Predict the structure of UDP-glucose 6-dehydrogenase.
Amino acid sequence: MKKITKICCIGAGYVGGPTMSVIAKQCPEIQVTVVDINQDRIDQWNTDDLDTLPIYEPGLKEIVGERRGKNLFFSTEVDKAIDEAQMIFISVNTPTKTYGKGKGQAADLKFIELCARNIAKVAKDDKIVVEKSTLPVRTAQAIQNILDNTGNAVKFEILSNPEFLAEGTAIEDLIHADRVLIGGNDTPSGQAAKDALSAVYEHWLPKERILQTNVWSSELSKLVANAFLAQRVSSINTISALCEKTDANIQEISRAIGFDSRIGPKFLNASVGFGGSCFQKDILNLVYIARSYGLNEVADYWEQVIIANDYQKSRFAENIISSLYNTISGKKIVIYGWAFKKDTNDTRESAAIAVADALLEERAEIIVYDPKVSEERIYADLDYLNTRSPEENRRLLTVTKEPIEVTKEAHAIAILTEWDEFKTYDWTTIYKQMLKPAFVFDGRRLLDNDTMQEIGFNYYKIGQS
Ligand code: UDX
Ligand code: ADP
């Protein structure tokens, strides 16, 4: 089996950065180089001030501080890193296509293809190429074809090694992974490649948690795992709507069903809707694949998970509008939280974007506070929707660093991310300075019902009447 001494990772994003940092930490004898075409991003990874790394993950800056310059490097010299490495991870972005066939559903593989062509051009000896990005099934085959047909007659072995890390707990998820999945060919060289990658993970994970499969199973498992998780959230969220109409309480229901060991207690928190870069994209991919094989019933079934999620977001926004007497034009509404969940600065597909957009459509005056998300990011998210002009977005919505101060004379507060700090606020002070009746719409079930009502708030908690 080939001994791996040098790893190259193409793409220094949410997946590549943390994953490679952990590999470098756990495998001090392996030199890990993360490359990206984006100079700014690489500069940010190389910054002296570890608090300004491009990605915020608990535990990440400590590892980067410990390994960078020793066996962990960030560089824009893509070709050099490819040339030197025995194993190349592809961790570039695979956004949903915004044009042509499969628009709005299929993954855009343009970045992957460019990577594969580049590897083929540069490689002068045999390489193991690992697809790490979330990809539609059968991408490995496409990569293999490009490499075999355009390469310099060297041998490429393609592995699928999907990422299961969740943002905010990425380092923890990598170090204590439930399982690692390695898909590869069943040929002797395919087996050798699988074993080589397995040996990297065996530095810190027990062998029985490293599962080897064929390539297709590995690729599809990633989509199915995310589809199942998202389905749980959508399932509980649909029930939250029913709870609000009856006297049932969603938390009691989650607890009651979660005690059934077959169902289990995790991922049953009702919310304003799931976000993140993976859930929606992966389900759309699954739907697209199913449809492309004529399996329309299968596609419809999974598509419903996304439809239910969109419903949850719009239901939440509509409830704000109707509670504020069907008119929010010019009313000051403070949004607490813009990230798609706590402990991350990532806002991709965040429910906050959809809720804010719906409120802005009604001409509300919105003020956003998020402890980690930048003002530029918030405006970029809104501008991307193209619902109204950038000027209008900036006129109607402002971003603040003063979460308590801004509630002065506000009509309502909407909690859209479950940041812990919101629980520690002095809600009595906030109540006193808001306009009355003072509304709080809690999309994360963060605060205590009785306390909020005793203070005097009109408090709405998702999943509770
Ligand atoms: C997910 C998968 O968990 C991970 O394995 C995969 O590699 C990438 O996609 P991530 O998107 O980082 O990870 O976040 P996750 O913690 O799964 O949460 C996704 C969304 O669901 C968030 O918006 C979260 O707030 C929401 N959620 C989660 C709920 O609303 N309720 C829950 O009970 C759990
Ligand atoms: P993910 O969440 O999948 O990690 P990100 O968007 O955070 O996605 O990161 C992907 C990174 O891949 C970006 O920094 C982007 O610049 C980089 N990238 C895309 N195409 C290439 C390429 N051909 N060569 C090197 N880097 C690339």
Remarks:
- The domain at 6-213 is CATH 3.40.50.720 (Rossmann fold).
- The radius of gyration is 24 Å.
- The chain has a mean pLDDT of 94.
- The pocket of adenosine-5'-diphosphate (ligand 2) is lined by residues 10-16, 35-38, 41, 78, 91-93, 111, 114-115, 133, 277 (CB under 6 Å).
